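> call design_seq(struct)
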């Protein structure tokens, strides 16, 4: 008995020591590799969150190496644990729209008129995120706007490559738009909304539905720090914020490759810009160019990047990078000018900032009404508080007030 007790104590001591070393390693990695500018909202809290993220990824990698589960599965599991119960102001149901899982949020209070309907697509780089990770945000949106919110649990990469996520979001949106009366929603007041990769999906769905004669026109699209192109990872914001949590430049390119190909074999080519032939880059330069970024966003140490040509084999692997359903910024003008009123939120300390700025310009150039709000002290991911009150940031409230 004494021997067993001694072994247990030694095991627990080793576990605690290992955990401490893990956290210290994560802290060291964070300090060595991240860059949190002084202008970021609540920088210490951001650093703590980043350490938590790194620690979780390291634990997942350890579990993968010893054959228990994959790193991706572990991270998804830790993200998707249910932490919230019933809401006194909302009726919340998990449903299926055709083959797509969704979560429906309906205000309990009766309404004399039909409500707005919001299709919400979560962020997470097409690899992470779920109905659970954005549950608190969706509850907030439903309560504050007194709208019916549908959160879409689309398929994730790398198991389900492009265009699986887009197809699921489109299918769920079409189902909802054809059955709005069942949910007490005005068919002329349907909005698509998403953050990060979800903003990409919202923009792609909105473009697909633009001008469809058999459906009501979307009322609006709400794009929260969206990723909208994969031609140029050397725009000013990608360099200025390359090491700012919670989305590093290298990670942004990694997620795109996971979504497109289910692997990251051409990561270096994406980062140095040699994944697309020069003639194609020049063709899209009218839309994707630092020249279209206002000068005030280039003052933080930006240096123009030299265009590199593309090897034939790499071109073959990433030829779909120019498809608007993957990169909505590349849609033709005839499509863009039919888009609904748009709200775009960008953050100063976000690699995806310039994607939003470029899309804002494209929309305005084509006569689309745009409301733009820029969080000067914001970073990527700030709007979604990860279902935790203590992880909220003060500037998040300002952003949400503008969205709602």
């Amino acid at each position: 008995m004494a021997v067993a007790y001694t072994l247990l104590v030694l095991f627990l001591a080793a576990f605690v020591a290992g955990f401490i070393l893990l956290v210290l390693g994560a802290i060291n990695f964070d300090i060595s590799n991240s860059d949190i500018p002084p202008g970021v909202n609540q920088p210490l809290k951001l650093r703590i969150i980043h350490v938590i993220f790194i620690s979780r990824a390291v634990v997942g990698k350890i579990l993968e190496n010893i054959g228990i589960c994959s790193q991706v599965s572990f991270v998804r599991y830790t993200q998707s644990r249910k932490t919230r119960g019933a809401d006194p102001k909302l009726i919340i149901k998990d449903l299926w729209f055709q083959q797509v899982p969704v979560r429906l949020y309906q205000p309990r209070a009766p309404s004399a008129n039909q409500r707005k309907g919001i299709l919400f697509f979560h962020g997470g780089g097409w690899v992470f995120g779920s109905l659970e990770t954005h549950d608190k945000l969706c509850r907030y949106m439903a309560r504050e706007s007194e709208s019916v919110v549908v959160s879409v649990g689309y398929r994730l990469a790398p198991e389900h490559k492009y265009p699986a996520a887009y197809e699921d979001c489109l299918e769920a949106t079409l189902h909802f738009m054809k059955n709005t009366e069942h949910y007490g929603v005005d068919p002329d007041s349907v909005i698509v909304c998403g953050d990060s990769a979800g903003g990409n999906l919202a923009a792609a769905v909105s473009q697909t539905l633009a001008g469809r004669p058999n459906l009501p026109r979307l009322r609006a699209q709400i794009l929260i720090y969206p990723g909208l192109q994969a031609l140029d990872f050397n725009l000013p914001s990608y360099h200025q914020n390359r090491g700012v949590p919670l989305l590093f430049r290298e990670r942004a390119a990694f997620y795109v490759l996971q979504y497109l190909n289910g692997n990251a074999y051409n990561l270096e080519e994406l980062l140095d810009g040699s994944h697309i032939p020069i003639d194609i880059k020049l063709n899209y330069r009218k839309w994707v160019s630092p020249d279209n970024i206002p000068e005030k966003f280039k003052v933080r140490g930006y240096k123009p990047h030299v265009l590199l040509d593309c090897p034939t084999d790499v071109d073959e692997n990433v030829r779909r990078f120019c498809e608007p359903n993957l990169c909505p910024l590349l849609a033709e003008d005839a499509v863009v000018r039919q888009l609904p009123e748009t709200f775009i939120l960008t953050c100063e300390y976000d690699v995806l900032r310039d994607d939003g700025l470029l899309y804002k310009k494209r929309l305005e150039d084509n006569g689309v009404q745009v409301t733009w709000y820029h969080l000067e002290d914001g970073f990527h991911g700030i709007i979604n508080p990860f279902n935790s009150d203590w992880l909220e940031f003060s500037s998040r409230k300002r952003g949400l007030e503008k969205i709602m």
